[in-house]
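Quick illustration, no need to memorize.
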Amino acid sequence: MVKIYYKYKPQRIFGLIYSAKPSIITSSKFPELIITPALENIFVWNLQKGELEKQSMGIESEITIMALSPDSKTLATGHQNGVICLWHSHSLECICKLFGHYSQISALSFNHDGTLICSGSKDTDLICWDVVSERGLFRLRGHRDEITDCKFLKKKNWIVSSSKDKLIKFWDLDSQYCVHTIAGHRNEVWSFDIDNDENFLISGSNDQKLRVWFLQNLLENSINEKEIEKEINPLNTKIVYMGEIIKQSTERVIKIRFVRNAKYLVCQTSGKKLQIFKVRNQNEVEKKMIRTQKRKIEKLKKLEKLEKPQKQSQENDNENDEKKNQQLITLKFANLITIRGSSKIVSFSIPEKTQLEIRKGKVKSKSKMKIILGLNNNSIESYELKFAEKANEQIKTKLKKAITQQGHNSDIRSLKISHDDNLVGTTSSEAVKIWSISTAMPLQTIDSGYGLCCLFAPGDRYFIIGTKNGEIQIFDFLSSKLIESIEKAHLGAIWTMDMNPDGSGIITGGADKCVKFWEFELVDSVYENENENENENENSKKIKKRNKSKSIEMEEENENKKPPKKQLTVVHSKTLKVSDDVLCVRYSPKGRYIGVSLLNSTIQIFFADSLKFYLALYGHKLPAMSMDFSSDETLIATGSADKNLKIWGLDFGDCHRSIFAHDDSIMQVKFVPETHYIFTASKDKTISYWDADSFEKIMSLSGHKAEIWAMDLNSNGTFLITGSHDKSIRVWTKSDEQFVLQEQKENELDSLFEDSLIQDSEKARHLENFLERNDENAVISESKTAAKKSLETYKGAEKLLESLELIEKIFGSNDDFSEKDFSIPSNNPLFMGLSPSEYLLKIMMEIKSNDLEEAILVIPFTSALRLLKFLHFWIVNKNQVELSLRCLLFIVKVYQKQIVSNKIAVSLLDDLQIPAKNSISNLKDLVGFNLAAMRFLQNQVEEVQGKIFKRKRKKKTEIEIEVIDTNECNYYNECELCLTHFIDRSCGWCNDSSSCFSGNYSGPFNQSCSQNSWFFGPDSNCSGPPPPSPPPSPSPSVSPSPSPFPTNDCETYYNNCALCLQHYYDRSCGWCYWDSKCYYGDNNGPIGTQCETNGWFYGPTSYCYIPSPSPSPSPNPTTSSSSDSIGAGGVAGIVIGGVLVISVIIIVFLLYRKKRNSGLKTFPVAEETQKIIDN
């Protein structure tokens, strides 16, 4: 009879925060979210809340590196097996998988528009991928060791890559060859970066120096004719070594990056330090050089040696350019601060978003930088760097937030499921954690010793652990306290612990060659009594102050005394001494036997009641690390460090079967309750499922990326939980999916066959590389195809061959192939009612874009010749032209010699010359027409909405917020745009004229708007003259939506427009122009008010103006002809405002001249504002 089994599948993973890989990402659009790799998953953390927002699952291989596209929409992950996955960054859905590398991905980078990806791997290859078509473009070969970093250039279509072979290479993507090589390092180049202007390249190695290279001449588009005539070596002239930056840490560089528009340089080393350098601009460097020269001259004047040393220094400067360059680099890159993490720093990220704050109605830029660190102890830290506003002040660093509670900082050494199967307790070297299995969230975290074993006491309130230093610690996780610690419970480490089946006590085994028995007892709570005594002392002091009579105090104290509370403890009852260290002890399920595993590789069985010796099990070559009894007490299974699983009978102690179960030591063995099924966990990162009756392997569970230390099953065997060295906790549940062992064996054989195919292709590649490097006459090609042979490639090739053979069987051989008509639908049911041409095209489109070329390469030439006929048919009929041309060009490239000697193929290619050109031109025209239509629609939308999709920012020097030219407020001719400048208040809305005017923090420049009606003025009470003749408005009776603010009393609570303005974002309150009052509401408008939708200021359909029969006045008072809107007061206001503006400009101009002449540092302003002041 065939035996049916049920599959165990992974359900969830928790306990991970950051898997210590050099990738941690923050998005400029969502600065509060952090994207971290969590082994094979992607986690999105909310830094403010400290909670996990999203997570992805489904990829088996571990993530080694991540990269985010410039528009923050696409996330790329590189994996251990060489696969690159593209994800939607918001939904974390996998878009596609890219196969091309043969080893783990070590470098990833997007280009400036996010359409290309460059990836580097341990296989020394560099591959350029097309994100849009989801395929590899080409493979660049030239490095001889692992690629450590790569980056696209903007000025030229180039890629820069660094490697462990001590080289930095520049690759031209057009010619697909290396054009320049920097060989200035003596050790491995671990990272590099290029500034935004692409003038400087900074590279880091194993030493204490960061090397700086000047690239401006290299990236110039024009080439000097004199250089061409002289044939100067471009390596010596176009890349200039400028000097070096000395970093504080002596450890090797991990990552170098320019941040905040290349104003700062951040260097991460392999230790706990993160060093930040200030990158000075050209003006600052010149000022610094002038100051240093002045100081030198002053020193020389004091020494009365001004003339001779000055001439010598000029001669030395002319002779030695290296000193000049080094001096320039020293001045340009100034050490700013060094941040020290609590543990080793693995990765860092700095959000680019600028923070703003408003104080007393004024906008001030926060001179702060947020730095997020990913540490190797499974934690994330966020630091806030506050820059000094004055020269004498120091830069302040503050730890703002840390995510540490959601996981252990070290290995999970043991775990135990509670008796009710709702909780799981885990131990590590620093803490004990109690988790909820249903929510995968930590309930309690308590500091503890190095826990090696653990269990829940009866009632699941107390958690008991055995530590490495021989202590037994008891925790009350409801009160989050260590209630008792029994020191020297063993004289060595307590390796194992188990509970008596009747729940009366526990048994422990340690390195002191003793097995000790402990019984549970309830004693008075020490901690509760201490707390009560403290409370009583405080109460007695208060009573003494109020009542002076001592007799009354004693009576009240006696009345308030409560009976002492009880707490759990363990009392040593007896000891069993053995011949060697105890590694594992277990009670049998019925409590008849006790199994003891010793360091001498033997297992001894004792009677539980009398502790008499019963059986000795010999056979393991190394000590048995774990063992377990079956529920019927007929079998005992032992797992050893010799990688063998042995199944013994308890009647005579005979070994039923010895199975080579794993590739490394077996750490845990568990029987499924009421069955003879066994789970084993090993150091080889896998879990195996066995049948102890048939001695066959049922299935294997893989997912952990490091050694598995702990495992436990629930009371009925429906799920198991494992803990590993990778700091993850995984839950595996029993599914309803049934299978037979024969099916599982066939699947395993298929997977082995797939692995062998991949290994064969890798061996062929290594052999090819070896022959090329050792053959002196061999011509090494630096560019090859990007795709590689994978399982998907073979599947696609098989489908293509089957379809071509099917067509050949029906329509004949190659001789009559060119005379057949393949557009007629076939009656064959295999074609599914399609014509042969449509059927083959469907098969071709099902093959992934990245595997198409490799699939065509696998098929023989005869099949490729048949395919050529269909490609001719598709191109002529303009059906999938792009796909057809791509396949045609690849076939011609690969089978060029065979095609030339074949008449049919030559005639087909001759016939395709004109149709192919016409198809390409038509396709190009179609794309251009669609692009023009999209731009037209974009312009229409911009005109309707008044929004600009891509607003160009003005050039900035030092300030990080956009400076608005408030003199041209006509640009903000709609209130919606005017409202976007609520923060800087450079523009404001006027209730008098229902127009937008320029202004400052005090009010409008245009005095045609009265002060009270200026909405954004700090003194405004929003009670300007109401609009003329408002029409009657309906009063809908709609219940208000729930809001976190007390919006039901909006008229009294938000009785000021300034308070109402604070709730612009949640729109829980809004100002009504019709009656100049504040009302509560929701996103759609006011609720239960007398304000109509058009007058509701914060409604999404609001036009922010009141329809008026009279025309609105012009923003320019000199051109206005309406005497009613301006009047005498308006003219006086205009004159006063003009005088104030002119006086302010004069004062700023004088202060600027004074500071520039005195040599003091000027305030950073925008270039356009600076030009206005200079003029």
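The mean pLDDT is 77.
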